[in-house]
Amino acid sequence: MNIANSSAPPRDPIAGVPRYSSAQIALHWVIGLAIIVMLGIGLYMVGLPKDLAFKSSLVNFHKSLGITIFLLVLIRIVVRLVAGPPPLPPMPAWQRAAASVTQGLLYVAMIVMPLTGYLGSSFNKFSTRFWGIPLPMWAWDDPGLRKIFFTVHTISAWVLIALIVLHVAGALKHQLVDRDRLMERMLP
Asked: pTM of the prediction?
């Protein structure tokens, strides 16, 4: 075994394209799809009447899925720090910077959104349940703090939607316009 190449990113055996690790690819797609589901549920449930019994079940599901995504994002960050990303294909410096900023903001939003949702849920008289298991109550019933956290939660949802659109548009540009095979790095 060549020790010099042992830390190199995995390559597609046929095309020779540097790729993310299998764990990074799986986490990317699972987290991405789960976030899209979460955003859809969040946008849907805010329009439901407060006294609807179904809304309470949906809110509890939303919280559990949100905490699960948060934990997966933490795992993804650790895996990324250990495995690292494959090298980017040649591109202008501004595109490299835009990709880096967008990706960094995606990670920030994926951390801020569940934390503010959980903290907003902590400043009330009801406990948050994680797949039926009650989590510790970190705070007291405080409508003012709850409003602050839920406002940040809502703003971060809209920021995350914009970042996802930008991320997908950039990936499609690389695939369809540049044809630099960048998307192949993250395909299963």
From this structure: 0.86
